[in-house]
Design a protein that fits this description.
With 293 residues, this protein is of the alpha/beta class. It is built from 12 helices and 10 strands. The protein has a single domain, classed as NADH Oxidase (3-Layer(aba) Sandwich). Helix content is 45%, strand content 17%. It is globular, with a radius of gyration of 20 Å.
């Protein structure tokens, strides 16, 4: 919003409402004319910004691209780059292993079932199946299997049900990119406002890479499960899941460093490539505004 406001010569002021539950953060937003405000060059990237889950170009990022991306996150964050075939292979294995944990948890199944919109190219509030990064046959099989947890569990146990989606959505894309990255905070975020600051930094990073003609896919499961392990959160009723996550947390630490794994706030892969032909779009303005009338 702050970037878009600059197109009108406005400065944006926000204040989080403290009378609203933190699980539903709500903000008062005010726009004020300011002659010193100049149009931000990232404005044009706002509507183009999207996730690309399919393979990207493997050409390395240029020094100019990396410098722009490192500057975009601000002084409170830095970027750890995972470049070259060896690092990309190690990261692809990490994502492949995390996907197994994600796809064999009944709790994650409920999330997947609720966020995927089947037989769709676009979706305003979910992930269209054509954007998942799998071939049509695998997508059709996933749609049938995911109608019930019993089917998912049977396929996982007896028919290697996780292999096709993990290879297509995690391992191959993990190699087919310029690099993986980890945005690391100087201090671990603690409050809601800290996490909002992280989000603003991530958005500027995302818009900057879009402005540069690059594409990106988030890779958040290693950070999520590692946090569960650090905080000793039992996130699944299924035996062995916590122990599996503990091993994956160590794998992440070996890849990026123990401290970086702890202070990491966003992870993904980036590279040159065509924009996604299927994508989530945006909620309407009416869906975002809370009326006080």
């Amino acid at each position: 919003m702050a970037i878009a406001a600059s197109a009108h010569g406005w400065r944006m002021q926000t204040q989080r409402r403290l009378d609203v539950d933190e699980t539903k953060p709500t903000f008062n937003v005010r726009f004020e004319p300011d002659a010193s405000v100049r149009a931000d060059p990232l404005i044009a990237a706002i509507q183009r910004r999207s996730v690309q889950r399919r393979p990207m170009s493997v050409r390395p990022l240029t020094a100019t691209e990396k410098q722009a991306l490192e500057a975009s996150v601000g002084t409170n964050y830095r970027i750890v780059w995972l470049e070259g075939f060896g690092n990309k292979l190690r990261t692809a294995r990490l994502m492949f292993n995390n996907a197994k944990l994600r796809l064999t948890m009944p709790e994650a199944y409920e999330v997947h079932r609720s966020v995927i919109q089947w037989k769709a190219r676009y979706s305003t509030d979910r992930v269209p199946d054509q954007a998942l990064g799998v071939d049509p046959v695998t997508a059709a099989l996933m749609r049938w299997v995911m109608q019930s947890w019993a089917r998912v569990d049977f396929f996982n146990k007896f028919l290697a049900g996780t292999w096709a989606p993990r290879i297509q959505m995690d391992f191959i894309p993990g190699l087919a990119c310029a690099a993986h990255f980890l945005i690391v905070a100087k201090q671990a975020p603690a409050s809601v406002d800290d996490y909002v600051a992280v989000g603003r930094s991530v958005q500027r990073f995302w818009l900057t890479l879009t402005h540069l003609g690059l594409v990106m896919q988030p890779e958040l499961t290693p950070l999520i499960f590692s946090r569960y392990v650090r905080e000793r959160t039992r996130f699944s009723r299924t035996n062995g899941m916590y122990e599996f996550a503990s091993r994956l947390s160590k794998q992440l630490g070996a890849l990026v460093g123990e401290q970086e794994g702890t202070l990491g706030v966003f992870m993904g892969r980036v590279g040159a490539g065509s924009k996604a032909v299927s994508r989530s779009t945006r909620l309407t303005l009416a869906d975002l505004i809370v009326s006080t009338q």
